[in-house]
Structures are given as structure tokens and as C-alpha cells.
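Handoff note, outgoing to incoming analyst
You'll be picking up this chain. Sequence as last confirmed:
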Amino acid sequence: MNNLPKTVSTTLYISLCNVTDCVLVFSSDMSEYGYTVLGTKKITLDVPQDVDINGAKIDNLKQQKKKLLAETEVKVNAIEDDIQKLLCIESK
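Most recent structure output, in case you need it:
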């Protein structure tokens, strides 16, 4: 049994980008960042109640781990490249 609320409410800000004239929707007022607020809309959404919360948390942690491993591999490879370049200079 979970303790999730039945619904969640928020205010959406319908905004216009002053650079591209694209209409965007934000969950906060972005006018200080150059967006013109065209209007707001309060919405209420049903929260799914049949969610395996622990399963969702585990999936999220696995995705974080995968991303971290990929980022680390890129950094380790860059360090290894620098090492190899220095070794090449030394051997010349």
C-alpha cells in the first residue's frame, strides 16, 4: 500500500519565447528569463495508484548508475589519451 495522494495540482505558465516566438509551457513563471507569460492554467492530474514504487526507484537508480558509468568512461578515456600522448612525446 502506498501513501500517494489521489491527485496533484499545479499552475502552468503558457509563455512566448521572445527570440523564436515559440509558445512553451512551464511550471513556473519564466518571465525573468525573457519569456512573455500569455496566461496561466491551473490543472489537477490523477496520480497513478498502481505503481510499484520500489521498482520505479530501482529503475531510476539503475539509469543514474548507467549514466554515471558512461560519463566516467568518457573521462577515463580522455585521461588515458593524455597519458598516451605524453608517453609518445617521451619516447621521441
